[in-house]
Amino acid sequence: MSKKSKVVLTGTCVKIAISGLNSQLVEEVIYYKYNLDVELATRWKWYFRYIAALVQVNNPHRKVELYVGPQDEILCGQDYIDSKSKSLLKAKSSQLKKLEKMVVQDDLFNLTLHDHETKKQRVKDEIDALERGEFNYYVFPTNINKIKKWIKR
């Protein structure tokens, strides 16, 4: 029985989210800081409250939520890349093996075979990129600041 290693996050994050007044769903995260020192987040908590209040004053028909505390289970930036690269490489290798074992029913003009070979080459290129350390997928940002968009001056 294998044990999965769980990533323990020790930092603090600050998040200001905005949504509709009667909605439970977050419309947009307008401010986010990842992996802050606990002391720094505590010292500047007044500033984060001020920003949230400023957004609320400028958007009275919206709900503004401030969260200052331990990071959620969401990894961002290089932490996310480090945790996902290994599993993504394993999945792509498995996908390549499946494509190589597949028997292709080809047509008269070899179009099906050509499509199959194109898929295999694309997966090989993705594996090569991951082995080189390139991560060509979406990475959650470590810093979001869209406050100016929500404050009218």
Brief summary of the model shown:
The chain has 153 residues and is an alpha+beta fold. It contains 5 helices and 4 strands; from the N terminus they run ββααβααβα.
The rounded Rg comes to 23 Å
Cα separation of the termini: 59 Å
- Residue fraction in strands: 15-25%
Q: Given the structure, what is the number of helices?
A: 5
Which structural class do the helices and strands define?
alpha+beta
Please count the beta strands (DSSP E, at least 2 residues each).
Answer: 4
The percent range for helix content is 40-55%
Which spans of ≥5 residues are poorly predicted at pLDDT below 50? 1-5
Task: Write down the secondary-structure element order.
Answer: EEHHEHHEH
Shape descriptor reads elongated
Main sheet overview? 4 strands, antiparallel
Strand order of the largest sheet: 3-1-2-4
Written overview of the protein:
It is a single chain. The protein has helices spanning 38-43, 45-58, 77-101, 111-131, 147-150, and strands at 12-20, 28-36, 62-70, 143-145. The chain has 153 residues and is α+β, with helices and mostly antiparallel strands. Strands 3-1-2-4 form a four-stranded antiparallel sheet. A hairpin with a 7-residue loop joins β1 and β2.
